[in-house]
Amino acid sequence: MRKKTIAFLLVAIVFTSCSMMNKTSRNKDQKDIKNDQNTQKFDYAFHEANKQLMLGKYNDAASFFIMCIELNNESAASYYQLANIAIRKEDYKAAMQFARAATKIDPKNSWYQLLLAALYQKNGFPQKSIDIYRDLVKASPENIELYYDLASAVALTGKSKDAIDIYNEIEQKIGISEEVILEKEKIYLLMGEAEKSQNELQKLINAFPDEPRYYGILAESYVSNKQFDKALETYNKLLEFDPKNGLAHFSLADYYRITKDFDKSFEHLKIAFSSSEVTVDIKVQMLVSFISVSASDPILKEQAYTLLNILLETHPNDPKAHTMYADYLVRDGEYKQAKEQLQLVVKTEKDKYLIWEQLLYVESELGEYQAMYDESKEALEYFPNQAMLYLFNGIASLELKKYNQSIESLKSGLDLTAKNVQLKNQFLIYLGDAYNRLQDHKNSDETFDKVLELDPENKFVLNNYSYYLSLRSEKLDKAAKMSKKCVDLDPENSTYLDTYAWVLYKKNEFNEAKKYMQKAIQNGGEKSAVIIEHYGDILYKLGEVDLALEQWKKAIGIGKGSEYLEKKVKEGKLFE
C-alpha cells in the first residue's frame, strides 16, 4: 500500500516548504500582535527558532517556538513546527496536539492538515485521518496526490471496496498506471479475489505490452493460485519477445520446481545464472538457500557447483561470487581451493572482516601456519580490535615456535574477549601451552588453573595439564585427579586413557597403569606408536621384559615414538 509516513512528511513538508510557510504564517501572526515591542521579540524568537531547527538543535528550536506562542498564542506556524519537533522525538501524541492547534488557528493551510491526518493515523484515529483527506480532496480535486493519500488511509481501515473505488477514480483521471494497478491488485489479493487481481494485471499488460515485469508478476500470481497452465503460457509470452530475460528464467525455474520437473528447472537456472542482467546478489541469495539442502544430495551438490562455475564465469571480478564459491568449498572440506578463492577476495576487499576470519580458519585447517601468521598480521592492521585475529596469530606463532610472539598476541586478544567465556578459554588454553613450551611452568600452571575455574570439565585442559605435570613428575596427585576426571567424562578416548595410565605409571602404580593402558589400546590406541611404547614401559616395570620388548618393536613399526624408543629396542631395557 502507498503510505505517507511521518518521516516522509517531515522531509516533504518541513524542508521543501518550511521557509515559504513560515514567511506567510509569520506575516499573519504579526497582525495579531498589538505591541511593537512584542512584534520585535516575536520576530527575533521566530527567526532563532528556525535557525536552530535548520542546525538540527531541536530542543533549542522548541524553546524559541514556545516563546513565540507565549508572545502570540495564535501563531499557527509555531505550533506546526513544535509538532514536527515532537515527531523527531517520537512523541506522536504531543505532535498530534500541536498539529491540531495549528489547524484550528489556520484551517485552510493544507500542510497543517496533511500533517494532522498522518498523526491521526499514527495515533490510532484512522477515521479522523480519512475525514481530513476527504475535505482536502473536495478543496483541491485536481491534486491527484490527495486521492492516493485518501485511498491508502481508507485501505488501512479495511474498507477495501471503498479504497478500490477511489483508485478507480484516480484511474479515470490519469489513465492506466502501474502504481494504481498494483495497489488494486494487492487489495484484491487481501480480499481473496485472485481473478480480479489477475484482471488488473492483465489490464496493465494490455496497456504496456513491452514491459516484461508485468508478465512475470501475472505469471507468479497464476503459480501461487496453482493455475500452472496459465502461468506457463504467460512465461512463454514473456520469453517470446525477451528470450534472455534472466529474471523470467529464474521464475520459470521456480515454476518447474513447484511442478516437480526438476531437469527443466535446472536448465532455466543455468540460463538465469548466465544472464549479466540478473544481479550477483540475486544469484548469491539463491545459492545461500541451496547450500544446506545440497550438502547431502550428490545430484544437487553437482548442480550447485555447476551454478557456481557459471556465476564465476559471468561475474569473474565480483568478490561476492568468489566468497560464495568459498563457502561451498569450506562446507565440503575443499580447503585448498577455498583458500585460493578467499585470497582473491582479500586482495581487493581488505575491509571485509569475515572474509579474513574465514581465510584464517581455512589455513588453520590446512596447517599452513606461515600463511596464517602473515595474513593474521595483515588483517590486524585493518581490524586491531578483533579478538579472533589475535587468536589465529597466537596459534600460528605457537606452531612456528615463536613462543614469545604467541604469548604477546594471545595476551592482547585476551583483553578483547569481554564476557565471552568460551572465547576467553580458547585464549587461555593456547597461552598456557605457549608458557609450557617455554618451560615457564609457573605461568603455564596458573593459566590452566584459570581455565578450569571457568570450565571445570574442559577435557582438553584436564588431559594436557595432567600430562605436562606427569612429564615433570610434579603434583602427581593433582594430575591423577584431573586425568581420572577426564577419563570419566570420556571413558572410550584412547588419548585420555593413555594419559591417565601414564600418570599412574609416574606414581609407580603399575598394575593400575597396565589396566588403563590396555583399555586405551582396545579403544584405538593400537595405531599410536606413543601409546604402544608406553605400554611397553609399563610391562617392563612389571618385570615382563620380553613382552615389553615386543611392544617397543611394534611401536617402531607404527611410527615415531620417544627419542629413546630405538635405544630401548636395541639394548632391550628401559630408558627414561
How would you sum up this structure, described in words?
This protein has helices at 6-31, 36-54, 58-71, 76-88, 92-105, 110-122, 126-139, 144-156, 160-174, 178-190, 194-207, 212-224, 228-241, 246-258, 262-274, 280-290, 298-314, 319-331, 335-348, 353-366, 369-382, 387-399, 403-414, 421-437, 441-454, 459-472, 476-489, 494-506, 510-522, 529-541, 545-558, 565-571. It contains 32 helices and no strands. The chain has a domain at 528-576. α1 runs antiparallel to α4 (76-88), α2 packs antiparallel against α3 (58-71) and α26 (459-472) packs parallel to α28 (494-506). The protein has 576 residues and is mainly alpha-helical. It is elongated, with a radius of gyration of 38 Å. 78% of the residues lie in helices and 0% in strands.
List the helices and strands and how they pair.
Elements: H1 6-31, H2 36-54, H3 58-71, H4 76-88, H5 92-105, H6 110-122, H7 126-139, H8 144-156, H9 160-174, H10 178-190, H11 194-207, H12 212-224, H13 228-241, H14 246-258, H15 262-274, H16 280-290, H17 298-314, H18 319-331, H19 335-348, H20 353-366, H21 369-382, H22 387-399, H23 403-414, H24 421-437, H25 441-454, H26 459-472, H27 476-489, H28 494-506, H29 510-522, H30 529-541, H31 545-558, H32 565-571
Helix pairs in contact: 1-4, 2-3, 3-4, 4-5, 5-6, 6-7, 7-8, 8-9, 9-10, 10-11, 11-12, 12-13, 12-14, 13-14, 14-15, 15-17, 16-17, 17-18, 18-19, 19-20, 20-21, 20-22, 21-22, 22-23, 22-24, 23-24, 24-25, 26-27, 26-28, 27-28, 28-29, 29-30, 30-31, 31-32
